[in-house]
């Protein structure tokens, strides 16, 4: 990673760990020449945070919005007071073919905003604190017309679904039949993007109770209950492209049957157990299964700007920092419409 990236000696208030009560972490960073220091306003809770908390892998929060309060001398594209966002990425080598193409997320030296380790051995702690120091190359601008709370989840959920849509020809080519599996934090943004990009969107869900709002507020065209074999049968060979956002182990077999011949399924869900991938639906339909991990910085800014243009934000439930354990429990029970966002600074979103 870029060796001038400097970090982690500033003390700030923060919180860490979710299986126990939140405890102060006092983690942050000194503002280096390439850094901006950001007062954190909001931080979304991604299901990845829950995977990490359950497995005691550490601190993760990575859907951060805030306001710039300090600017390093090389970070002049930002100024104090700018509304900005930070997602999963904290550092990369800035030299390899992927970095050169703004696919920093696939750089083999990439470090996450959370649990990342910098070249100097310091550790990244994510956005669950009141201040974060970030290299300006991994910071995006937030359009003025979008509120800071409901934008926060775009920094991970949004870019994670935008990137595979773009990579697979779903941007700028309307009229495709698109499926979204799992109507959660990632899935509900995927539905909004699919509609904004002019596609016919079918939601595949295990929750019949989500049908009304999927077709109503979110604008989906069709809704299939994935545990209903008749509905699944009726949907066979109907879709060009499927985005699978499910957080739990499941079989891809029945879902692949919904793809047309030569169709593509991209999985972004990251269950900690392997997915079942029976060969026949692949072979008989010449279908492809791919993965995708978050997105690069150029695409993240492009997504943000498109969200500004189409007025796309996430459906969020804003919570206070001291209710995070309850929120995590509800997230584990699939009881959120569709993202919890922590009000880190304790203010109403009016900036
Ligand atoms: P989420 O809000 O909890 O949504 C996941 C959805 O999956 C649920 O709303 C539910 O939708 C469905 N689901 C849950 N349990 C299920 C089960 N047992 N069987 C079938 N469906 C089930 O989670 P999220 O924040 O959107 O994240 C989704 C996944 O993506 C997580 O595994 C997360 O770690 C991963 N992720 C990956 C990336 C990446 O870069 N690839 C980035 C961010 C997150 P229905 O009620 O509609 O069935
Ligand atoms: Zn995430």
UniProtKB/TrEMBL annotation:
Task: Show the Pfam families listed in the entry.
Answer: ADH_N, ADH_zinc_N
The keyword Disulfide bond belongs to this UniProt entry's keyword annotation: no
GO molecular function terms listed in the Swiss-Prot or TrEMBL record: cinnamyl-alcohol dehydrogenase activity; metal ion binding
Known cofactor(s): Zn(2+)
Keyword list (alphabetical) reads: Metal-binding, Oxidoreductase, Zinc
**Enoyl reductase (ER) domain sequence ranges:** 8-342
| GO BP annotations, alphabetical order | lignin biosynthetic process
Task: Report the InterPro entries cross-referenced here.
Answer: ADH-like_C, ADH-like_N, CAD-like, ER, GroES-like_sf, NAD(P)-bd_dom_sf
Keyword Transmembrane belongs to the record: no
Task: Indicate the quaternary assembly.
Answer: Homodimer.
Can you tell me which family this protein belongs to? Belongs to the zinc-containing alcohol dehydrogenase family.
**What is the protein named?**
Enoyl reductase (ER) domain-containing protein
